[in-house]
Amino acid sequence: MESVVAVQKLTVAEFRELEFDDNDTSWYELIDGELVKKLSPSPLHQRVSRRIEFVLELYVTQKKIGEMFHAPIDVFLDGHNSVQPDILFVPTVNAPIITNNGIEGVPALMVEIISPTSGYRDRVTKKLLYEQHGVQEYWLVDPLEELIEVYRLDNGHYTLLSAATVDEGKIESAVLPGIMVDVKTLFAV
Predict the structure, then answer these.
(1) Ranges for the Putative restriction endonuclease domain (predicted)?
(2) Domain residues of the chain, as ranges?
(3) β-sheet with 109-113: strand ranges across
(4) CB burial of residue 89 (10 Å; 0-12, 13-18, 19+)
(5) Pick the CATH number of 42-187 from 3.40.1790.10, 3.30.430.20, 3.40.640.10, 3.90.1570.10
C-alpha cells in the first residue's frame, strides 16, 4: 500500500512572519503556499524593466489614471499567494488596494520579465495564477528573444492581445488604451 504524505502550505500570514538571513540577496514569493526563491535580476533584466516602467509611468502619469510600481513589492492575491511581479499597474479606482504592507488585491496589469531560471514559472505558473485571480492584463517579456507578449483576460482566460519582437514593431494594451510601445526602444543596447 502506498502512503501519502500531506505537505502543509504556508499562509501569507506565516510567510510574512518568516525571517531571512540579512546576507541573502534573494527575494521570496509565496506561490500556492510554497516558498519560491528568486535571484537578483541581471543587468539586462534591469535595463529592460527600467525602460518598460519608464514608458508606462510616463503614460499613466500624463493620463492621471493610476500608479505604477516595480519589484520588489509584495502583491497579496489571497491567503496562499504573495508575488513580486517586475512591474504592475493599479488604476485610480482600485487605489485602496495600495497599503503600507504592499498591494493587497489584484492589480489591473502585471509584467514579468523572464530570466534564465524563471521561464516555466513566468510562462505557466504565474500566468495561470494571474488569470485565476483576474489580473486584466499580463505582459510576458523575454529579453533573450527580444519578445513581448501581451495577454488580455477574456471570459476568465488569457488571450493574446499583442505580440512583437525587435524586428516586428509595437505592442498595445487594453488596460492602457491608446498606448503603443515600440519594442525596439525597450531592447536597444
Answers:
(1) 13-182
(2) 42-187
(3) 66-70, 87-91, 109-113, 137-142, 147-154, 157-165
(4) buried
(5) 3.90.1570.10
